[in-house]
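Model the whole thing, not chain by chain.
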Amino acid sequence: MLPEFELLMPRSLPEALEMLAGSAPDVLPIAGGTNLIPDMRGGRYRPGLLLNVAGLPELCAIRREEEWLVIGGGVTIADLLDDPLVAQHAPVLREAARMLASPLVRNRATVAGNLANASPAADTAPPLLVLDAEVELASRGESRRVPLREFFVHVRRTVRRPDELITTIRIPLPPAGSSARFFKVALRNADAIAVVNGAVRVDRDGAGRCQGARIALGAVAPTPIRVPEAEAALEGQWLTPEVIARAARLAAEAARPIDDLRGSAAYRQHVTAVMVRRALAEHGTRNTE
Amino acid sequence: MEPRPIILTVNGRTHQVALKPNVTLLHALRDLGYTDVKNGCEKGDCGACTVLLNGKAVNSCLVLAWQADGAQITTAAGLGTVDHPHPIQEALADSGGIQCGFCTPGIVVAAKALLDRNPDPTEEEIREAISGNLCRCTGYSLIIEGIKAAAARLAGGER
């Protein structure tokens, strides 16, 4: 049995924001509940008051707005897998969605919840980081956009205020010549939390040279991180095996992993270099096609 | 924490029940007598409590009953009975994909969700579809064979 709590059931986004404003700071939004319910049962969170946002009609759409792909705060991980706009404009996010938990969880878990929960191992974080995503936070009467890079503060802590809801996740459409890859190492191939995950994006110029790169890593620091040192080592370069090896080494050096039940810090550091190298090598291969 | 009346339509039958907000769909269903929905881990790891919620396979232990107010819910027992089993249930039994049976209702529902969307799945797609359902007896091989056989039987025109 779950601990006792009160549950607010707004029927619209304005009503939800009104209720949040009236109840903050002692209120937690719940959508899919796939993290929150086990965490309440395990005693990590003891909220006296929850606010249901699952199924709020304003939050359920995935749409294109000019040069942005806009994902509603109630969009589930399964929705990402079915959506043609995501397949077209953010295939790296789709790859991550396919590796997140199980199909049962994916039918309930939301992208916004995966970010708001702020696990260092959140599978949607690395792809959204390399896509330069922004998080739109709304409260009664106002809204602000925060780059995802500035959204995570620490393990399970974000800049979201208790009276704010994630209403959208906004992805600027990547330019032509941009491609990205997701990777995940876990103790089994499905329904497992990452030992290390990450995403690598390479933007090439007309000739095929790397104009700019983004590398994001998860489960190797208190928050999902970008690794600018490794990215800089790729800029303006042809992706030769030497260039790739150097960037992979720099990425592993930037990682600050811990030992836990899923893997040792040393293993995480090692596997980071391997996976970044492989992900970049795939870009290299595709360059020469 | 006051109970509130909600409506759950389970296997085509409508129930009005007054529940407190901390009751999960899993407990609501079992208390209504749908004990084919099994309580395994209660944290979304094992899949024994899998039901269809408006056609989608979910862990009922991770849904608050209030969140399911007005929803259509299907459990394994809603797909077929001992006398009139669903082809998925029949094929799992015939293949030997059932041993202790505890995971079976969840596997049946996950397989139903798969075959509704994808009537001719590859082995890889079957493995992915049941990746949230743990079985500690069979080693999965015979479950996968059973789901393949079910797909073939359904394609052959049974139900």
